[in-house]
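Query structure, 80 tokens:
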């Protein structure tokens, strides 16, 4: 019995350590994923804005276009 108890005392901390390391890794991966998702969403917003600008470009005068650019920049800052 005593040998089993000693073995358990040695094994349990190791398992706990492994578990903690795994959790740490998972946490890091989740943070990375979140960062990537944020970057992707920002990129998507930028793409949509650029496409909108290209679509509106022929119809717009310069002053109006500059105003739109300013508004889009402000919107980007708000999103960030």
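Result returned for the query:
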């Amino acid at each position: 019995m005593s040998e089993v108890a000693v073995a358990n005392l040695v094994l349990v901390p190791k398992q706990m350590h492994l578990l903690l390391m795994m959790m740490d890794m998972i946490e890091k991966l989740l943070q990375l994923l979140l960062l990537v998702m944020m970057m992707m969403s920002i990129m998507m917003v930028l793409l949509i804005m650029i496409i909108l600008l290209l679509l509106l470009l022929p119809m717009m005068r310069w002053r109006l276009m500059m105003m739109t650019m300013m508004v889009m920049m402000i919107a980007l800052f708000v999103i960030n």
